[in-house]
Design brief:
Layout (H helix, E strand, L loop, with lengths): L13 E7 L4 E3 L11 E6 L3 E6 L5 E2 L9 E3 L5 E3 L8 E8 L5 E11 L6 E8 L5 E8 L6 E6 L5 E2 L5 E6 L3 E10 L2 E10 L3 E4 H27 L1
Parallel strand pairs: 1-9
Antiparallel strand pairs: 2-7, 3-4, 3-8, 4-5, 6-7, 8-9, 10-11, 11-14, 12-13, 12-15, 15-16, 16-17
């Protein structure tokens, strides 16, 4: 072995971190020591250098898609702001001590969208007596989400983890909640059944309320006009 070569200590630790689009995330090495490292630099995908600090403590942010969105703290934590889906990647941190030993760690960052309010709908397969047979549908237009159907009854019934749920029953009124989740957020919407086989989603209910409010306002206006006449 050649003498005088810098000794490299390769210790690989993998950590998983999640963030939200437009949010902020902090990537912190687990290899923290009380004394400061001689030099440090962060890379994305082990190829694009995005932040570094030299032996004199000066911090550099090379030109990249991250410039203006990253900040390197004295404790070697890297802050990334204004997250984008494209920021999902593996981030490598190289920590070099004062004798030239390099400690390496990587962090897997996954950036998710916030889950919007689901769109719910019911397709009636067979209506009327004796049973209402329908397929409940729920969607948010995102990948990487999980679906959960919950029936608001006694006892509560939890549906399968899919975007559709086949139901067949004959109660007077029944409500079903579709809950959609990912690792950073969740949202839900309700479908309400009324005998014999009609369904109302939250968006439909909101539209109905708006229409009702308009009709009430028109009624007040008509009454005012009759009074003035």
């Amino acid at each position: 072995m050649a003498v005088g070569l810098t000794t490299v200590l390769f210790l690989l630790f993998i950590t998983q971190v999640v963030g939200t689009v437009h949010g902020v995330v902090y990537l912190s090495p687990s290899l923290q020591k009380q004394e400061s490292y001689h030099q440090i630099h962060w890379r994305c995908n082990n190829t694009v250098k995005i932040a570094s600090r030299d032996s004199k403590g000066k911090v550099y942010y090379p030109n990249s898609a991250y410039k203006g969105r990253v900040e390197l703290f004295p404790n070697n934590t890297l802050k990334i702001s204004s997250l984008q889906k494209s920021d999902s990647n593996t981030y490598w941190v190289y920590l070099e001590d004062d004798v030239g030993k390099e400690h390496i760690e990587n962090i897997l960052l996954t950036v998710y969208d916030l889950v919007p309010k689901p769109t719910v709908n019911a397709k009636v397969i067979r209506g009327g007596s004796p049973l209402c047979d329908a397929m409940l549908e729920c969607s948010v237009g995102l990948e990487g989400v999980t679906y959960e159907w919950i029936r608001l009854s006694k006892p509560p019934l939890q549906g399968p983890g899919t975007s559709e749920w086949h139901v067949s029953f004959d109660p007077s009124i029944e409500a079903y909640i579709c809950k959609v989740s990912n690792p950073v957020s969740s949202n839900n919407a309700t479908l309400t059944y009324r005998h014999p086989c009609s369904w109302t989603g939250e968006s439909s209910a909101a539209a109905f309320c708006t229409t009702t409010s308009v009709l009430v306002a028109l009624g007040h206006l008509l009454l005012l006009l009759l009074t003035l006449a």
